[in-house]
Amino acid sequence: MFVGNGSTLFQTLVVAVLSVIAFQLLAFNKVLENSLHLPVQSSNPALPCVSAATSKNSAEKDLLALDRVFTHDDFETYFGLSVLHTVQVDQVIASYVAQHDTSTDDKDDSADDQHLAQHLSHIFDRGLRNDKRFYIKYIGPEKGYGLFAAVDITPKSVVALYTGIITNNSISDYQWEYPSKVIGPDGEDLNLGIDSRYMGNWARFVNHSDDPNCDSIYVLYNGLWHVVYMSTRTIRKGEEVTVSYGNAYWESRDIKRDE
């Protein structure tokens, strides 16, 4: 049996224990580095959300491939977006929206619109879940992405419910104007829009056309305005879905367009 100085023996044991702990920490960090490929959120919602294990060149090639199609299942992975199947209200303004009298709004809530609202109530309540009729595809650098028909779409079909968050003073390009003149806490008119910049569905990818194959229709349901895209003619399989953004969209952005 070896008998030495007690203080020296204690110090030796402490150093040995600390060495073992340091080695285990290094090994644990290495395991985390190799196994946890957490997504890196892009500051631009139109850019991909790429995992640490995916090379940048590979991800960009996949995202911009002309033959690659995307669905709601790809929203978070490739676009850094959250899927939203129904319209939601920002809680900051929810009480003011709820108190608003929609009968004073400019949009005409006629008997036909009330009938349409009831006919589409299941869509407003649940959204178009598991809809396989469309897909998203990259078009090119000028237009970016677009929505395309996976099957033939007949005229007067509901193509999409435009979902997002009803919010105030949004500067997003991914929004429809909300028609209600809701009064805020200081007696001011709130500048509301249905914003799908970060949360929405594939309706946010529908591009503008001067000769669109869909109409955008405002429908009032349960005290909230909804925007519905409805086909105006047959949309063939593989054809891009388009709407008119309207003059207000371009005017609000000081964009002059050729007549």
**Shape type:** globular
Structural class: alpha+beta
User: What percent of residues adopt helix (DSSP H or I)?
Assistant: 25-40%
| Content of β-strand | 15-25%
Order of helices and strands: HEEHEHEEHHHEEEEEEEEEEEH
Overall pLDDT, averaged?
80
What is the β-strand count? 16
- The whole-angstrom Rg is 27 Å
Task: Please supply descriptive tags for the structure shown above.
single chain, 259 residues, alpha+beta, four-stranded mixed beta sheet, three-stranded antiparallel beta sheet, 7 helices, disordered N terminus
Describe the structure.
The chain has helices spanning 6-35, 56-63, 75-79, 94-99, 111-119, 121-126, 247-252, and strands at 39-40, 50-51, 69-70, 82-83, 88-89, 134-140, 144-149, 158-162, 165-168, 175-177, 192-195, 199-200, 207-208, 214-221, 224-231, 242-243. The protein is α+β, with helices and mostly antiparallel strands and 259 residues long. The strands form six sheets. Strands 5-9-11-10 form a four-stranded mixed beta sheet, with no helix packed on it. A three-stranded antiparallel beta sheet has the order 3-6-7, with no helix packed on it. The longest helix is centred in the N-terminal third of the chain and has 30 residues, at 6-35. The chain is globular.
